[in-house]
Amino acid sequence: MGPRSGHARLDGRTRNETVAATMHDEHDTQHDRPHRDFATAPRLAWLLLGLFLVATIGCAGPAIRSQSPEIEALAALEADTKLIGDYAAPWGLNAQRIERAALVTGLAGTGSDPPPNAQRQSLMADMQARGVVEPNGLLASTSTSLVWVHGYLPPGVRRGDRFDIHVEVPPDCETTSLNNGWLMETRLAEMAVLGSRIRDGHVLGVAEGPLLVDPVSTGTLDPVSKLRAKVPGGGVALQSRPIGLILAPEHRSVPLSKRIGDCINRRFHTSIRGAKRGVATPKTDRYIELEIPPVYADNLGRYIRVVRSMAVVEPPGGRHARLELLRRQLSDPVTAPGAAIRLEAMGREAIPTLRDALESKDAEIRFAAAEALAYLGESAAAPHLAEAATSLRSARAAALAALGTIDDANGIDALRSLLTSTSAETRYGGFRGLWKIDPTSPLVRGDRLGDACSLHVLDVKGPPLVHVTRSRRPEIVLFGTEHPVGAGLRAEAGPAIVVVVDGPTALVSRFVAGDPDQQNDVPARLETIIRAIVELGGTYPDVVQFLQQASSHHALQSRLVFDAIADEEGRLSIHEEASARGRDIPSTSSDEIAPAGDGAAAAVPLTDESS
Question: How far apart are CA 610 and CA 523, in angstroms?
């Protein structure tokens, strides 16, 4: 995370102080300064003088004093230190879109016969290759529909990893709704339209599962919303996607490629097929392949920034002077985020410097230091990250990601403290962090309800909250053990299941033509009703439909929230938020949990495709 808003702090500084404090803050970009030879001898005199002054004079403030020999020495040190980012740029960090025409079945007369176009031809060829009998008759049925399916393979995805699937009805089809549909197994590949034909590449993923039509749009007048759906975690990657570094043309050579690889491997290791080894493998004079250490699995962007901030060339004795320079930059909120990244790149020798910054009075400095310490395995950062996740919405996403890497008692205690927050984002972020660290922990373990979904009931205090996911995996989390459902409710759970609540009990019934009726009497509590729906053959979309109807009829006394996942987009920066609170300006948050019984559902449109 870069210092996006620190410029407001520059008022009152001299120009030289500003330049000194911010020099090298953008060091992780490829073209920050011109290329210099590795030779450092002409600058050693200034360097030695600077080291002497650092030891004898010390730091007089957050910015380095201007026009002093010490400044000249540190500037020379900056110039003579070459980082990986000066030579190489990341490769393979874009999500890869894979797609194909597919068939949805199980529609209640809302399907259609697709027009004779390239998408129909593609689907027909796929059906014939699979040996489908009379494919034209199947496509003509109103219980089926042609759809276009796509998903995104994230960078670094491994074979067997799951990803979300997006489904939509093409504009020239007459299908009116995808409700209750099932996506048949579909092989996904990179696609291109050449002339009137669709050309595809290698099959990179497969997709299948029940369609989750946008639950927030239920009951709206928008007909298009019923023609889009998702299958959370419905895709499976068939190939791994490597990431790496590409050397700039002017720097390509086998010795430099090896030197960069050795530099990375001294800092990062991972376990590959049971053997511990470095993460970098120089493949050619221009490409270095990277494995992703587990600690950065959920924060690939930070991993790349840290790698590119590692020093390949450093003047003799320059490491101590660099630590002093970065300590000074860390003491200023303008340069603290960049300095923390470079300290994290140094490894464990930077821990004392980062620990000292936890005592700062500035929220941005404390957070920058705590985030770096978390990725260095230091649990002292845990309470500071929990504080940031609770009080600074701008830092919440990064704080939660960092907390999820601290798997000792301090990290677990910090995450548990978030489960009673008034923020749905913070509470669900705490759950995700705990589940990631130990999915078998009694607090967050939950139950797998057949093939439908996972249900987690957390025995925690705080306002009752029901969290439902529409991405990653089908999952329902109940915060609190008491979630009563009000009497007088009659709600549907898919095409065949009806829930009727009468007083303290609920009757869950399944009606299918040709089959005997099935009924379950259960207590009128959310957990027991969800279990009964799945026991009668209900799918995850069926459960979500019931939850939405119960909430919209004000029968669900708990708050229902969809996808309360913290992100940084559109929010104040940490510095702006902290400054606003210092002026007694409240920081508003749309995800604060409303009083029980409001029946509101907070959600992001299903068409969002952030991967």
Answer: 39
Contact 406, 382 (CB under 8 A): yes
Backbone phi, psi, residue 581, to 5°: -70, -30
Using CA atoms, how far apart are residues 263 and 400, in angstroms rounded to an integer?
A: 29
Half-sphere exposure of 447 (CA within 13 A, CB side): 9
DSSP alpha helix (H) spans, 483-602 = 526-535, 540-552, 574-582
Question: What angle separates helix 15-22 from helix 69-80, to the nearest 10 degrees?
Answer: 40
Using the Cα atoms of residue 393, residue 395, residue 400 and residue 403 in order, give the sign of their dihedral. Answer: negative
Instruction: Assess contact for 307 and 331: CB atoms under 8 A.
Output: no
Tell me phi and psi for residue 151, to 5 degrees: -150, 170
Ordered mean pLDDT values, 10 residues apiece, the chain (611 residues) = 38 38 40 37 42 41 49 68 93 93 90 88 86 86 93 93 94 88 92 70 92 66 77 94 95 95 92 81 95 92 95 82 89 93 95 95 93 95 93 89 93 94 92 93 92 93 93 93 92 90 92 87 94 93 92 91 76 50 40 43 37 33
pTM above 0.85, yes or no: no
